[in-house]
Amino acid sequence: MTNEELITLVNELLQQGKELEWLEFKQGDATDAQRLGKYISGLANAANYNNVPFGYLVFGIKDETLDIVGTNYNYINKKEKGSELDFYIRRNLSPSVHFQHFVCDYDGNKIEIFKISAAQNIPVSFENEAYIRVASSLTELKKYPDRMRAILNSHIDWSAEIVPNATLEDLDTYAIQKARDIYKEKNKNKSFYKEIDNWTNEVFLDKLKVTINGKVTNTALILLGKSEASHLLSPKVAQITWKLDTEEKAYEHFSMPLFLAVNEVLAKIRNVNYKFFPTNQLISIEVPKYDNESILEALNNCIAHQDYSLNSRIIVTEKINKLIFENAGGFFEGNAEDYFLGEKTPKNYRNKWLVEAMVNLNMIDSMGYGIFKMLKSQKERYFPLPDYSKSKGNEVILEIYGHSIDENYSKLLIENKDGLDLTQVILLDRIQKKTPITDAAAKMLRTKGLIDGRKPNYFISAKIAELTNRKAEYTRNKGLDKEVLESFVLKHIEHHGFASRSEINQLLMDKLPDYLDEKQRKKKIDNLLQGMKDSIHNVGSRTESKWVKIRKD
Q1: pTM of the full structure
Q2: Where would one find the signal peptide in this protein (predicted)?
C-alpha cells in the first residue's frame, strides 16, 4: 500500500470513533513479543466473530482520545530468541493467519499498522493458546465457549467457490470420462442410470457436484483440472509429491487432476510381500507390505481434508519400512483416535463441497469410516496400526507400517485372530510403540493378563509370552524373584567368605527388571540387603562394605 492509501486507511479506522473488538489502538511501544502474538491471535478471532474481514492493531494513536501521536515501535528491527521477530510471531501462530505490517508517515508522525485477516473456521492460537478481544480486553478464547462455537461454525467453504476466468475447457477430458464411468457404476440402481450417458458435460458435472450451474469451482480444478490450469488456483496448491527415502533416492510431483493422480502415486510405491513365521506353524504367512485400499484411503483423505489456505502440497514419503502421508491443516473435528473404532461420524468438514464430490466419485466415504478401515486392514495383516502421533496443530502426519515393530506382537495377532477385540489390539499396539496408555486401560489389560510391569514401563505379560514364545524377554522385563536374588548373594558369600557392595551390584544388576534405570536398580539392591538382615550383616564401613553371613551360634 502507498503512504496515501495508508493515510486513508488510518482515517477510516479513526472514523469508527473508538476502539472496537477487532480494532486496537496503542499509544506507545511497550508491547513485548508474546503480547504482540496474543494480540494478533485475539484480533484475528475477534474479526471472525464480528463478521469483518480484517482486524487492526495500530501503534501511534491514543486509544482514549484517538489523537495521532506517533510511535517509537519498530517491528521490523526487533529480535526474539535470536531470530527476527516476524519469523517468531508467524512460526507460533496456528493455523497460520495472513497478516500484513505497514509503516505510515502521517503528517510527520510514524504509525505502524498490522492488518490481520479474520480467522477462517478455526480459532487462531499463539503458542497453543487462542485469544480474543472482548470489549476492550484481550483474554483467552476458552473462557467464551459461545464465541469459540461461532468461530468454528463460521466456515467459508473455499472448495465451493467459483474460480474467476475458469471454464470447462480447463478440465481434463479423460478425467471427466473416468469420473462419468465411476459415477455410473455407483448409481447403477438409480432411476436416472440410463440417462447418464446422454447428459452433456455441463449437466454431468453439476450432478457430480464439482461445478455450480456450469461454472468451475475450486473442487472441479482440484479433482478434474488440467495440469496446465494449476495457475488458476495460485497461490493455492493442488499437488502430491512422492519421495523415495531409502538406500535409493527419488521423487516425483503429481499435479491436477488429482482424481487420476492418486493412482499414479500408488503405482510408484513398491509393494513387495512380507513373511511372518508364526510359532508352532511350519508354513510361513505371506502378506503384502501395504494394502492398496489403505494407501488410496490415506491419499484421498489428504486431498479431502487439506487446508488449501496454507498453500502447501501433499507429501508421501516412502521409507524402507513405512509410508508417511503429510497434509496441511489439523483435524477439523476431533482427533484421529476418535475415529479408530468407527463409531464417530463427523458433523462438519473443512472442504464440504470437495468432500461431497469425492463421495460421489467413490474416493472417500462421509461417515468417518476411513481411519477405521485402515486400522482393520493393518490388524488383519498383522502389522502395527496406523500412527497419527506425529501430527501437529496445523499438519496431519500419518504413518502406515509395512513391517513389524515387534514380530511377536504380529504372531500374537496371527494366533489369536478372534481372541482380541479391536480396543485391546489398539492398546497393545500402543504398548509395543512405547506410547503411554491411561490408568483405566492399563487396569483392563492387566486384569485380562495381557500386560505386566510398572507405569509407564508396561511390557508384554507372561500369558502372551507363552503364546508368542517370549519367555526370555518376559523374564528380563520382570526380573528374577526376590528369593532367587537372595540365593545369589548367599552363594557368593559361601564361596568367597564375604561380598563387597560393588561385587553384589555386579552380581545382581543385570538380573533386575529391564524397565528400571541404574539408580532404581541400586535402590532395589539396597532394599534387598535390608531385607536379608536376619541372614547377613555388614562388618565393614558404609563406604567399604563387607557383607558376611550371620553365625547362628
Answers
A1: 0.58
A2: none
